[in-house]
């Protein structure tokens, strides 16, 4: 007899995290890595990056690639880029930005909690630098999948 237990999540994001975790747990070969911890953190940035990679992989023509990152602000004033789920729960506020690879502007910015203008701009700048790293990683993945033919 198979019984599926549904837990009421505190928020839609937590519910989606649970669905994703339950979907992939039977698929990921965790026995090969018994000490590995698979953690699904700040779902919005992850989802945006996943959509970008899926569109790239499918060969969908785009004007630019979108990358997203998150920054949490903690009670002591420290900022963490892409905080873990435990860190995210301890954060007093956070910023998630999505950026285009074709411009320096922000496509989407979501904030949660109270933060000063200085904290907002510090997080935004940190997210921009992190997004540049994510975009570089996307380029490496694409180049490995579709290497340029040196004869053409």
TrEMBL record:
What InterPro entries does the annotation carry?
Answer: ExoRNase_PH_dom2, ExoRNase_PH_dom2_sf, PNPase/RNase_PH_dom_sf, Ribosomal_Su5_D2-typ_SF, RNase_PH
Q: Where in the cell is it found?
A: Nucleus
- Keywords noted in UniProt: Exosome, Nucleus, rRNA processing
The UniProt GO MF terms for this protein read: RNA binding
Q: Which Pfam families does the annotation name?
A: RNase_PH_C
Q: Which GO terms describe its biological process?
A: nuclear mRNA surveillance; poly(A)-dependent snoRNA 3'-end processing; rRNA catabolic process; rRNA processing; U4 snRNA 3'-end processing
Q: Which GO terms describe its cellular component?
A: cytoplasmic exosome (RNase complex); nuclear exosome (RNase complex); nucleolus
| All copies of domain Exoribonuclease phosphorolytic, residue ranges | 65-126
The molecule here is called Exoribonuclease phosphorolytic domain-containing protein
Q: Which organism is it from?
A: Phytophthora kernoviae
């Amino acid at each position: 007899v198979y019984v599926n237990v549904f837990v009421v999540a505190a928020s839609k994001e937590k519910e989606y995290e649970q669905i994703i975790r339950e979907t992939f747990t039977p698929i990921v070969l965790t026995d090969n890595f018994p000490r590995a911890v698979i953690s699904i953190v700040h779902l919005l940035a992850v989802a945006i990056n996943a959509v970008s990679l899926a569109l790239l992989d499918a060969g969908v023509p785009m004007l630019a690639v979108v990358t997203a990152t998150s920054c949490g602000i903690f009670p002591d004033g420290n900022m963490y880029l892409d905080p873990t789920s435990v860190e995210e729960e301890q954060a007093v506020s956070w910023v998630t930005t999505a950026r285009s690879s074709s411009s320096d502007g922000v496509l989407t910015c979501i904030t949660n909690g109270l933060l000063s203008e200085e904290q907002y701009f510090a997080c935004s700048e940190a997210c921009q630098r992190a997004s540049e790293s994510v975009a570089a990683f996307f380029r490496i993945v694409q180049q490995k999948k579709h290497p340029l033919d040196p004869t053409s």
